[in-house]
Amino acid sequence: MTINKQVKDELLKRNQDYINKVSNYDFWNNHIKFVVDEALKLADIYGADREIVELGALLHDIALVSNVGTKADHHINGAKIANEILISFNYPEDRLQRVLNCVLHHRSSQNAENVEELCVCDADILAHFDNIPMIFFKSFTMGKMTLNDIDLLIKGFQNDFNDLSEKTKETFKDKYENIMKVLFGEYWKAL
Questions:
Q1: Superfamily name with CATH number, domain 3-190
Q2: Is a pLDDT exceeding 70 seen at residue 190?
């Protein structure tokens, strides 16, 4: 069994535990599988190490899935948990830190120190555009937004797009504009 499969199985186990014990929110089906898919596409575009990128994408929200700490510090706790998981699977030490840095720096492409980290950062953002119903659900149900707050949602999408690296932004621009036009008509451009 590959390391990627072992890590995915561990993630899915923790995800099911989270669903059963903490909340009915399914991190895998609502977010992480989209991050993994986008990260691998970006790895091909950027010529990044696919194994490092896939492991970073699988583990980027492991602290949230494991219900450890807060959202604000999930990247720090996630790197610690990822370290424990990867060591338990005898992951090579010379590659370990590269995966941990993908987890640690995934919150903004501005923090990325190499191409693998950049792929995970950008994929984390692109996943928001891949599962728009989840964004609306979280905003209106969990975030208690109302239709009067639609500007906040638009700003959130705009901020996500603006946080992408320049190359990913160029690649994704047409899709982003189409999504925004379908969701918000011409209104979004006025903000």
A1: Hypothetical protein af1432 (1.10.3210.10)
A2: no
